[in-house]
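Researcher: Structure for this, please.
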Amino acid sequence: MNKGLLLSVFGLGYTAFCHADIPQNYGQLELKLNTRYWNDQGVAHPTLLNPNPTTSRYEQSALGMELNYRSVYWHDWLGIDGSIYAVSKLFDTGKPTPQLLEVENNGKLAQNFAVLGQLYVKAKLGEGSEIKIGRQLQDSLLLKSTNTRAVPDTFSGVSAQFKLNPELNTYLSYYDRWKPRSMDSFEKLVTDNNEHIPYVALMGAKYQTQQWTLNTEYLKSKDYLEKYGTTIQYKLPFASSTWLLTGGAFFSRDDGNLFKCAAEADLDCIKGQQISNRGNGYFFDINWMIKRFELGVAISKFDGFWIEDNFSTHSDRTGGMTQDHGTNPFPTSSAIGPDFTNNDETAVALRFRYNWSDVIQGLKTELKYAYGFGAHQSNISSEIEGQERYYDIGFSYSVPWIKNLDFRYSYLHYDSKFEHAALGEKINGMTRKDWDQHRLLINYRYTF
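Model: Predicted structure, token format:
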């Protein structure tokens, strides 16, 4: 780890905080401080080799920093943006896992890292259209840079967006390397088998009117996987409330010789056998909003196993792997572990949100409950059937007297079981019998 670089980065951030005064015609400088705390414990399903699994626990916290520079467009068409990322461990106990920092070969969590994160050239291609070349963030239906860790996932390649008319926007992206949130370098894209994926590319479009929104996207993970899907949303004002009606369909397909047993850890398969994937997922979601209250209900149905992860990467640590975690577009998904997208599974979710601004300004609460049933193994014919359950209780607070400072606490719980409860039964997409996690996120942003 480059401690000198790390100290330089934090020194630069402190100096900028105290003294910076960048004229607007030179661009914008922003400092983001992301404090993260994770407390996790869970127990796996018993197996024939391990009939009495012990509870696995860890606790870790880290401080992340992003120093982001956004340039103006010189001659109204060309600019350069960049970001420096730095992460420093605050403390950790229990079994180290690569949530906030990498696990080193000695089995311990890394102390810190600093890296040049984003760095791209941007060029206007007309009103509302732009191309970016270099290291950048991504946010779309099937691929997204996470914002829940100390620093975000960042991708290296080319992206472009085109505004064809006021209602229709299209976009393209091509990436051949990425920097996972816990690592200090840009890595090749690989399968869970550690076989190289040449690139991931995507194309999509968004059409939006006052009441209708249509999103569609196609993603190709070269020689491994392709995914595509569409969502349609209708906004219906009614009296003093608003209804949002959303439906969607998403599909995953194998795309070449890299797709094989163990290329995706959640697949059920027999090593050495040829496998394929035809995962189909459909959902319908109703959301009702009135004043400070919001209530939602959703249902998803799967035929085959819909794959969330688009690729992985292997760390320098022997056997170390970090999965992409893709982007799960289904409203019945969970924030930890399993994706609720197993073969034959039906998932139902309830959501509740409330803004307490009339009592405590800046305070919001959110609850989500999801239940999945009828799940079967993906590439093996068996009578094993699974059920899974997830709930998430969250509180967020934006401090009204300190601009751009906010806190979020979440308690997440997951559990799963099999119909016959026989020793040795398993579905790889349901990895734990019981799982609890506490998350605390503190975000601060300062623009100079």
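Researcher: Any notable elements?
Model: The chain has one helix and 22 strands. The CA atoms of residues 101 and 182 lie 4 Å apart.
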